[in-house]
């Protein structure tokens, strides 16, 4: 790990503590990486607005890969660099599919304004759907089935109770609707026992977002390090040469990559220690 030029970290459950604060050790680790001219990247499922809620402007990151790779943002210059949305024809097919199936969902405006979203509440909506709605209702607009938005969309969110077999079945069905999308699984950051099913353009992933930055800066894949804690970090860690899961990752993921301490115990600072010594 002597030639690392870029370090990418997930936020929730990885870089941030459970109370969404940043530990002194992690902040110091970021500062030292900057002194060594190592590029510091956030790769998160959060949209840009939600990134700003937990990362103040003076925190020394260089780039933000947001919404699981739907966009890339230059943190130093506070400038949008890149985004990828679901094309309109695919978005229409997905909207009709979920409505016809009676599946509650959120459909997000095109990035980078994808903190705004439409919602469709079926008779079978779960408590987790309502919690998410309550947290985000200031940016929510009720979807009218007889007047669907005619636009690209950044992503869809469907929430189900923890059931990997149901997830795999839905994933297969959804990806068969159109060829330009992909389905990502992540654990609910609100309530344990729920799966968040996120649907994006087929090229969207945290790994591709980091690759975009590497290509721009002339950094080779073998010069990268990544750290995450959940299913939606698999694309990131599949791209980075040196990859780590935190101790608080789901048990079925822990054997894929080397372990780091938990997010409560300065996982980020621990992982990059060999670089900065």
UniProtKB/TrEMBL annotation:
Keywords: Hydrolase. One of its GO terms (cellular component) is cytosol. Gene3D superfamilies: 3.30.1240.10, HAD superfamily/HAD-like. One of its GO terms (molecular function) is phosphatase activity. The keyword Hydrolase applies. InterPro entries: HAD-like_sf, HAD-SF_hydro_IIB, HAD_sf. This is HAD-IIB family hydrolase. It comes from Maribellus comscasis.
